[in-house]
Amino acid sequence: MTDVDVPVLIVGGGGAGLTASMLLSTLGVESLLVSASPGTSILPKAHLLNQRTMETLRELGLDETIYASGCPPRHMTHSGWYAGFAGDHPDAGRRIAELESWGAAGSTPEWAAASPQRPTNLPQIRLEPHLRRRAEELAGPDRVRFHHELREFTQDADGVSATVLDKDTGQEYRVRARYLLGCDGGRTVGRILGIRAEGMRDVARMVSLHITADLSAWAKDPHVLIRWLWLPEAGVMGTLVPMGPERWGPESEEWVFHLNYGADDARALDDESVVADMRTALGIGDHPVRIHIISRWSLEGIVAERFRDGRVFLLGDAAHRHPPTGGLGLNSAVQDAHNLAWKLAAVITGQAGEALLDTYETERRPVTSTNVQRALDNALNHLATNNLISGSGSGWAHMGRLWSGEPRDAEFARAVRRAIAGQSMEFNEQNIECGFIYDSAAVVPDGSPAPDNPDPIRIHHPTARPGHPLPHAWLEDWHGTRLPVMDLVGPGRWLLVAGEDGQAWIGAAAQAAAALGVPLDAVRIGHLDGDYRDPRSTWTRLRGHGADGAVLIRPDRVVAWRSPGTADDPYAALKPALHHLLAR
């Protein structure tokens, strides 16, 4: 195997690494991805893909492929809580409560207004092959190397020198890169750098069973994606999630069942005991089940103490690990790559100064720290709800208090249902998923206050205020073709959006692009005038400036700068803003 000289070395072939590879390719930056694993994930693991992640996959030409492979919206509008699953008891599988989830699969007005993309559900075991194929298409198959293990690396003032082992041939080769991205789940890169992780560990011991089984006789409610099962006989809570692949809902061929064990429970380490516990808990007796894999993991929420060390950056699980509650882990990993890729490209091509790369940690670490805490809070609320039930009794007689209708059970039943309703913090966390805000040198504040928000978890206020993601609006060109405003942002390109009377800003943008060598497009959007029409006045309502004002959008579709109106010299106002944003 010959040595390689490449601008970016990516270590790890999961969601973060493959997304980084694809994005860098679309930006014209060559990279080499190496992964010690022989292939993509063999575990279902993460499965929920939120709207911001689907926007990135749209940008990469993958959204329709993912939607076609994933769960149909009708099978993921709700989450449900049940008393058991199957068995001889007449109340086995009785639904206790359900919550509308992910904006009823993106169909509610609030979620439809947030993005042109709806959320979907596709387990990582089936997502990653799509990502890998696309990465190989864009970068070339020889630039995506699985079963190649990073053995060691060193840094100097100009780059990173790494040794990689081809595990198929046993040969080592050298890689020289300007930058290294650690996307390996923290297994190698962070350890070599001595970067510690901070947070909560060993919150619970979990065992997950990936199975093939026909559960359609008991899996009620085809609109429910995740089933939280309180198991009266076992006195524990389990979670059952369909995994497709051809059919979804109750007809799903594959499932994942999660069980939690105490830290000192030896049964968790024995496969036969775990399978027996699954059958008992689900109440399915000797019903045919094929076990694909049993995985054991600790529920934890941790964040790396730093995301950058010289020319090395940590992304995804190498930088932060989340409980699965809320589905924030994989989505955060994709958004890490989306934040960093354009900055690397700008620095490598000479458009930006090296200091721009400092804004990766400044922007992403606070957001992912919030996401980790949210995931922990989601998980802890589930555990508290389970303790509320099991802490005051066990068995079917106790469970029956939830639906007895007896006055003496009313307070207990209400407390349980209130705790379940509180889980909207997980299943309706729209502002956590869509409303993150960046505060760094790659944003120029305009002095406007953040929107007042009575519930910063569940309520998302789209806005074109600097630091916020580009708000969604449907536009029309003058031929009547409908498109979302996000599609105006080309790969690696800046976009200035002026109001209908903002002709002066269009000229200033052309001057600035020529003077600075920055790929900058400029358009006017208005209800009756401009390059694009705002038929519902959505953009006009969200833009936060007048008819002669403008906003500047970064290549990662984050609002970077805004002018409320015209300026005496628009070019003189725009050029220094770009200088600042690009750390020139």
Which key features would you list for this structure?
FAD/NAD(P)-binding domain; D-Amino Acid Oxidase, Chain A, domain 2; 4 domains; eight-stranded mixed beta sheet; globular
Structural overview:
This protein is α/β, with parallel strands linked by helices and 584 residues long. The chain folds into 4 domains: 213 residues, FAD/NAD(P)-binding domain; 102 residues, D-Amino Acid Oxidase, Chain A, domain 2 (2-Layer Sandwich), CATH 3.30.9; 60 residues; 145 residues, Glutaredoxin (3-Layer(aba) Sandwich). Helices cover 32% and strands 26% of the residues. The chain has 17 helices and 25 strands. Strands 1, 2, 7, 8, 9, 10, 16 and 17 form an 8-stranded mixed β-sheet that branches. The chain has an 8-stranded mixed β-sheet with strand order 5-4-12-13-14-11-15-18, sandwiched between helices. It has a 5-stranded mixed β-sheet with strand order 23-22-21-24-25. It is globular and about 75 Å long. The mean pLDDT is 95.
